[in-house]
Amino acid sequence: IREAVDHLVRQGFLYREHGRGTFVSPQKLQKGLMELTSFSEDLIKRGITPGQVIRDMSWVVPAPNILQRLELPAGSEVLRIQRIRLGDQVPIGLQTSFIPLTSGQIITREEMESAGSLYRILQEKFGIIPTEADETLEVTLATLEEATLLQIESGAPLLLNERLLFSQNRTPVEFVKILYRGDRYRYYVRLSR
């Protein structure tokens, strides 16, 4: 029995807590690398209730590398939305979006809270349809602040996802940085030859 339990721990189905015992691991959320979905759409497809805590919504001048990716001139202001993303009320990720809205385009906190999905607001309010994205993934370690917000240990592994989203006109409409909990999220890709 001990050998079987050890095998399940190595496979990630169980985990141990010193002095407490052995427990069933929470289900990892799995996302295909070839799918362009919003966080909310992704969770709903898996039968998980998406949620969010909006930490901040403000106009900022982002770092030069972000402005460059959004194809904006130096000194341009964009809307920055910082959120804690939840799945069944459990913190799963920290998301920071940079959205280059044009004059007259406004997204309010109330709209974000009621819609829950930025993609839905872009499409329904402005006719901007997210159609493709450039995305990078890398592993990083949680800082003390990130760990506190995600309710994990400081130094725990995180999956850093950076995405540049394009509209139907091939115009950049969002640069987003998401830090996912390494114990709750994974990506998969099907390769063929």
Can you describe what's shown?
The chain is α+β, with helices and mostly antiparallel strands and 193 residues long. It is 24% helix and 40% strand. It has six helices and ten strands. Strands 4-5-6-9-8-7 form a six-stranded antiparallel β-sheet. A hairpin with a 2-residue loop joins strand 5 and strand 6.
Strand content: 35-45%
Averaged pLDDT: 86
Task: Please give the share of residues in helix.
Answer: 10-25%
Number of strands: 10
Number of helical segments? 6
What's the end-to-end separation, in Å? Answer: 41 Å
Most strands sheet: 6 strands, antiparallel
Low-confidence stretches: 29-33
What strand order characterises the main sheet? 4-5-6-9-8-7
Radius of gyration, whole Å: 19 Å
Shape: elongated
Class from secondary-structure proportions: alpha+beta
What string gives the helices and strands in order?
HEEEHEHEEHHEHEEE
Compact summary:
With 193 residues, the chain is of the alpha+beta class. The protein has helices spanning 2-11, 39-45, 64-69, 109-115, 118-126, 144-150; strands spanning 14-17, 21-24, 29-32, 50-60, 78-87, 90-99, 132-141, 157-166, 172-181, 185-188.
Features:
single chain, elongated, alpha+beta, two-stranded antiparallel sheet, 193 residues, 10 strands
Topology:
Elements: H1 2-11, E1 14-17, E2 21-24, E3 29-32, H2 39-45, E4 50-60, H3 64-69, E5 78-87, E6 90-99, H4 109-115, H5 118-126, E7 132-141, H6 144-150, E8 157-166, E9 172-181, E10 185-188
